[in-house]
Specification:
Helix 1 crosses helix 5. This protein folds into two domains: 80 residues, Winged helix-like DNA-binding domain superfamily/Winged helix DNA-binding domain (Arc Repressor Mutant, subunit A, Orthogonal Bundle); 161 residues, Aminopeptidase (3-Layer(aba) Sandwich). It is built from nine helices and nine strands. Helix content is 44%, strand content 25%. By secondary structure, it is α+β, with helices and mostly antiparallel strands. Strand 1 and strand 2 form a beta hairpin. The strands form two sheets. A seven-stranded mixed β-sheet has the order 3-4-5-6-7-9-8, with helices on both faces. Strands 1-2 form a two-stranded antiparallel sheet. It comes from Streptomyces monashensis. This is MarR family transcriptional regulator. GO terms for molecular function: N-acetyltransferase activity. Keywords: Transferase.
């Protein structure tokens, strides 16, 4: 297998790990793939031959075997451990303002990626769509911004900074880095851009809400000085989760 194939297997195993059996079309939807992209049929055949997945007697649905679940967990643990700190070689990363179509891309990729990696349902897509629509329809360009990260000339990440209800407070939202782009420090660049912008325009505090299953993101926030301020269990996006509020004192962190 090529390096690209290995990464593709990683993505497929991760998606199957969050699905209670699915067909190829459903798997393609979870991965956010166009027909033919990723050579999904070939990858599934290889995964099945390796004993990591099996089809039902009708041959229409595929699910991980016990070995496949173990491999998915091991790959996820490795990916999480490496996070945004493992360089994969030289690459040109650029942050830019959104262009026409980028806000829609943010909605689509958030929905597809969180379905594939965590099994979240369409409720999450609805939430992201409302957040993005609110920004598109009414935002102050001096106090609110969106950044799109590009790697090799294509979008691979995003983040948003918007005004919070509390006076003097900004909110970081919708941080995302595509799996194949992780390892280039893109998450650090995106969070750093929000912190610098929020401090530069005069916000006192920067807050965010996340969930405890997002281990790599939480480590990233902590690395930038955010402090966990509250936790609350909740049922959202078809899953039982623990929501977390994080806060960064911009005046103190900038001293």
């Amino acid at each position: 297998m090529t390096v690209q194939d290995i990464r593709a297997v990683d993505r497929v195993l991760s998606a199957l790990a969050h699905a209670d059996g699915t067909d190829e079309a459903g798997l393609r939807a979870r991965l956010g793939l166009a027909d033919g992209h990723l050579a999904l049929t070939r990858i599934l055949d290889a995964v099945e031959r390796a004993g990591l997945a099996e089809r039902d007697p009708s041959g229409t649905r595929v699910a991980l075997t016990a070995s496949g679940r173990g491999a998915a967990e091991a790959l996820n643990a490795l990916r999480t451990a490496l996070g945004d700190t493992a360089p994969r070689g030289p690459a040109e990363v650029a942050l830019r303002e959104p262009r026409p179509g980028d806000l829609g891309w943010m909605v689509q990729r958030n929905a597809a990626l969180y379905a594939a990696e965590y099994g979240w349902n369409a409720d999450y897509e609805g939430l992201v769509a409302r957040i993005v629509a609110d920004f598109a329809e009414d935002h102050d360009p001096h106090l609110e911004r969106v950044w799109i990260a590009e790697l090799g000339g294509r979008p691979v990440g995003c983040v948003m900074c918007v005004r919070d209800d509390a006076p003097g407070t900004a909110r970081l939202r919708l941080l995302l880095v595509e799996p194949e782009a992780r390892g280039h420090g893109i998450g650090d660049l995106l969070v750093g851009a929000v912190v610098d912008f929020a401090r530069g325009v005069g916000y006192r505090d920067l807050v965010l809400w996340t969930n405890d299953v997002l281990d790599a993101a939480r480590r990233l926030y902590r690395r930038h000085g955010f402090v966990l301020t509250a936790e609350q269990p909740h049922r959202s996006f078809g899953k039982d989760l623990t929501g977390q509020d994080w806060r960064l004192d911009l005046h103190r962190s900038g001293e």
